[in-house]
């Protein structure tokens, strides 16, 4: 079985500050890992994905995430937050290329002016 | 525009009524999924289909049924709605050659 834990259901940062959203996973096999973003009243959009190539993955809108096997983590970061980054972020894991995803509980990012 | 269409966008439904949420994709993806999204619980898988003609149960299948008569359509049916089924429902699809999902815009369902 696989699972995903996102630490912090709400994160608040100031505009221009570092964004760090935490994700830890458990998986019996090397996982595929994903970050999705959901803007209000919309579906989920893929930010980035880890597929066992480079451990540092760059995504859209300046986000990146680093896969750390020793820590079973896949934290999402962005050096400088923009107001437009305010959204809900979901970490997800897939055990294989069959694609069935297990999602974490989500983290709502708030950006203060 | 290629993607997933869900209907209706939102619905208020009386408890005990039957309801079908529609999902159509035009990307010829083999696999399709239904998730429900609830505050603090993220997205939980209700049912899935790896290919037309096959379906499977996810984490929270009770009270829901699906069918997959063709590649494009994957309707979700609530046979007799209950208030605990109040949620936002997302349909998604995936292509085995590209990891990750394409999501629909969701259906907000309120059961009263």
Describe the protein in words.
The complex is a heterodimer of chains A (113) and B (112). Chain A contains no helices and twelve strands. Chain A is mainly beta. In chain A, the strands form three sheets. In chain A, strands 2, 5, 6, 10, 11 and 12 form a six-stranded mixed β-sheet that branches. A four-stranded antiparallel β-sheet of chain A has the order 3-9-8-7, with no helix packed on it. In chain A, strands 1-4 form a two-stranded antiparallel sheet. Chain A starts with a strand and ends with a strand. The mean pLDDT of chain A is 90. Chain B is built from no helices and eleven strands. In chain B, the strands form two sheets. In chain B, strands 2, 4, 5, 6, 9, 10 and 11 form a seven-stranded mixed β-sheet that branches. In chain B, strands 1-3-8-7 form a four-stranded antiparallel β-sheet, with no helix packed on it. By secondary structure, chain B is mostly beta strands. In chain B, strand 5 and strand 6 form a beta hairpin. Chain B starts with a strand and ends with a strand. Classes of the chains: A mainly beta (113), B mainly beta (112). The A-B interface holds A 4, 6, 9, 32, 34, 36, 41-46, 49, 51, 90, 94, 97-106 and B 4, 31, 33, 35, 40-45, 48, 50, 90, 92, 94, 96, 99-101, 103-106.
């Amino acid at each position: 079985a696989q699972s995903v834990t996102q630490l912090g259901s709400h994160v608040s940062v100031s505009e221009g500050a570092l964004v760090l959203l935490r994700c830890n996973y458990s998986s019996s096999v090397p996982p595929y890992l994903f970050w999705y973003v959901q803007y209000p009243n919309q579906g989920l959009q893929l930010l980035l994905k880890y597929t066992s190539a480079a451990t540092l993955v760059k995504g859209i809108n300046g986000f990146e995430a680093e896969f750390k096997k020793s820590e079973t983590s896949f934290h999402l970061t962005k050096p400088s937050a923009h107001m437009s980054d305010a959204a809900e972020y979901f970490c997800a894991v897939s055990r294989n290329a069959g694609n069935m995803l297990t999602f974490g509980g989500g983290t709502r990012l708030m950006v203060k002016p | 525009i290629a993607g997933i269409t869900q209907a209706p966008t939102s619905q208020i439904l009386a408890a005990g009524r039957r309801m079908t949420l529609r999902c159509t994709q035009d990307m010829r993806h083999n696999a399709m999924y239904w998730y429900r999204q609830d505050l603090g619980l993220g997205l939980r898988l209700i049912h899935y289909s790896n290919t037309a003609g096959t379906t499977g149960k996810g984490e929270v299948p009770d009270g829901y049924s699906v069918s997959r008569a063709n590649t494009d359509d994957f309707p979700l049916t609530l046979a007799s709605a209950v208030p605990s089924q109040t949620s936002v429902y997302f349909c998604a699809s995936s292509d085995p050659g590209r990891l990750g999902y394409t999501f629909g815009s969701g259906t907000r369902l309120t059961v009263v």
